[in-house]
Structures are given as structure tokens and as C-alpha cells.
Amino acid sequence: SWTTSSIIDDSVAAIRAQVGDGHAVCGLSGGVDSAVAAALVQRAIGDRLTCVFVDHGLLRSGEREQVERDFVAATGAKLHTVDAADRFLDALAGVSEPETKRKIIGREFIRVFEAATSEVAAAEHVGFLVQGTLYPDVVESGGGKGTATIKSHHNVGGLPDDIEFALVEPLRTLFKDEVRKVGAELGLPETIVGRQPFPGPGLGIRIIGEVTFDRLETLRAADAIAREELTAAGLDKAIWQCPVVLLADVRSVGVQGDGRTYGHPVVLRPVSSEDAMTADWTRLPYDVLERISTRITNEVAEVNRVVLDVTSKPPGTIEWE
Ligand code: XMP
Questions:
Q1: In which pathway does it act (predicted)?
Q2: Residue 20 annotated as part of some ligand binding site
């Protein structure tokens, strides 16, 4: 539309004015905000932008491909992926407590991102860091345009101790729905532009108990089925999000064929919400629930029971951890 394309034109002009002939780096999370911010900066400065994507191994099925294949195809952006799954699994070994998990994932993420960014910055003389800050985030944090200091790591040779970046925040005046429109107009695929909220710590906080590779594979398979069926039923837009949670430390007895099983339950957590501050549990149609349940218990070997979370927020949070 006219307004969306004028937002894009103004934004591209402002980015060019700010960055000049400099270089920029942008972290991609797989989410809509960082993707749209990166796409705008790519349009403004082309190959002088490098995108960094940290695969922490806690992503859902297909998410890495959405970034590496679909985002790159749509934008032509230069992408540097860091494969850090083993590092995150090592750091999470033996940990079940939710806040500890979150702290470990956050800490490792910053370390990996900083190391990757420092490498790119040294090679390209990067002076700018792109962030997908939205207008509501600006208001919440009291405004003010800042700089970010990213400490380089001792194992990255030949760098100054600190690299200083100026922040480029092309979404600072926009609301989420405007960001989605801008992304669509820039040609980003619906899988990215229409993506439901997904927490930074990823599936790490949807496994109740220790996070292991096998448990992640089990949850990825169950989550992919739930998303497929919700999409097929045309409900993916109607609900806010539907976390699938693996109760990895719980087992229950089941029967399949002529054998007894002793497997794990998964919880479906479909919620309706305006802003995630409060939420209601979504009354999904029984036939959709039935298809999800039948497919998960047939197709995911470790799972022999599917249960539905019927708790609103408050008192429950949307995520289980
Ligand atoms: P809760 O569980 O607090 O979640 O009701 C509210 C919303 O925030 C998402 N969420 C996160 N998003 N980093 C994020 O970017 C996080 O650490 C995080 N934790 C929760 C959650 O999916 C829901 O949409």
C-alpha cells in the first residue's frame, strides 16, 4: 500500500543517511522483527550488511531453513550462521531449574553472538549494529538512542578490547502490525512475517526437566505436528500461539498394539491473547485436538499421551517455565 511503501522509502533514506558508506551487522533470531529490520537495512546498504544467525539447537523444526533459505532468497542478504547446538547442550547438561536454564541460554547466546560479531566486525570494519526494536519497546525503556559495546573475546585475535557500535533501529517508530506489513511488502515469506511469538530460549524452556538432544528431537516432532494441524485447520492466525510442552521427567503407562508402553506426555497450550500480558485458553475444536493427539501418539515414539492445558493467564503463564 501507499503508506507501507512510503514507510519503506523513508526508512531506507534514513538508514543510508546514518550509515553512510559504513558496514553493519544484524543478529537474526528467526522472528519477524529482526528479519524485517535486516531486510530494510539490506535494501538500504546491500552487501555492507552482514546478518548473524546463532543456531542454539533449541529451534523448532524448519526454523533454521526459514532463515538460511527463505530469508536469504527473499532479501539476498549476506548470512553468517553459527552452529552452536553442542555448546548449548553441554552448558545445559544436568540442569532442570527454569531460571537457571534461562540464565545459561542467555549467557551462552551473548557469548556466541559477540564472538561471531567481533569476527565479522574485524573483517569488515563494522561500525553499526542493527536491532529490531519496536515502538512499544522504545516507550517501555524510556527512549534514548544509544550505543552498544560488545566485548571481544580473547580467542578472537587482533581485536581491540571493545568494539563500539552505533545502533541502527529502523523499526523504532513502528507497531507490530506495521512491521508485518513492511516485511510482506519487502517480499519476506509468510512463514517469517506471520510467525507467532516464540521465546528466545526456545524449546529449552518447553522441556520440563533436563534438556537433551533426544528430548529436543521428540519435542520438535510433536510441535511440528501440532503446528501442521493447526495450520491445516486454518487456526494458526486465530490463536496467539500454542506451545507444545514435553513433560520429560513424567512417564505414564499406555498400550499400543499388543504392547504396554511407558512414555512421556506432551501438553498442548493453545492461548488467545492481545499482548501476552493476559491470556485465555483457546477452545480448539475437538476434531482438531483429536487429529493432533492421534498423530502425535502414532508418529512420535516416546510420546504416549497428549493433554490439554485449560489454564488462563493469570494464574498460569503462557510458557511452562
Ligand atoms: P509468559 O510465559 O511469561 O510469556 O506468559 C509471555 C510471552 O512471552 C514469550 N516469552 C518470551 N519471549 N524471550 C522472548 O523473546 C523470552 O525469554 C520469553 N519467555 C516467554 C512467550 O512465548 C509469550 O508469548
A1: Purine metabolism; GMP biosynthesis; GMP from XMP (L-Gln route): step 1/1
A2: no
- pTM as predicted: 0.91
Tens digits of residue pLDDT in 187-211: 999 999 999 999 999 999 999 999 9
ipTM: 0.99
35 is in an annotated binding site: yes
Is the bond leading into 314 cis (omega within 30 degrees of zero)?
yes
**In a shared domain, residues 147 and 44:** yes
Q: Are residues 57 and 26 in the same domain?
A: yes
255-288 core/surface letters (b: 16 or more CB in 10 A; e: else): eeeeeebebbbbbbbbbebeeeeebebbebeeeb
Task: Quote the CA–CA distance of 201 and 206 in Å, as a whole number.
Answer: 9
Beta-strand (E) ranges in the chain? 23-28, 49-55, 78-83, 126-130, 147-151, 162-168, 207-208, 244-247, 252-256, 259-268, 271-272, 280-281, 303-308
Which residue range is the domain that position 219 belongs to? 206-308
Name residues contacting ligand 1 (CB within 6 A): 197, 199-201, 241, 276, 313, 317-319
Of residues 223, 220, 228, the one with CA closest to residue 191:
228
Over residues 42-70, the mean pLDDT reads 97
DSSP 159: -
Q: Give the domain CATH number at 225.
A: 3.30.300.10
Ligand 1, atom 4, lies closest to the CA of 318
pLDDT (0 to 100) of residue 163: 63
Q: Which residues contact 180 (CB under 8 A, 6 or more apart)?
A: 32, 36, 193, 194
Q: Looking at residue 83, which CATH number applies to its domain?
A: 3.40.50.620
- Which amino acid makes up residue 39? A
The verdict on residue 316 lying in a domain is no
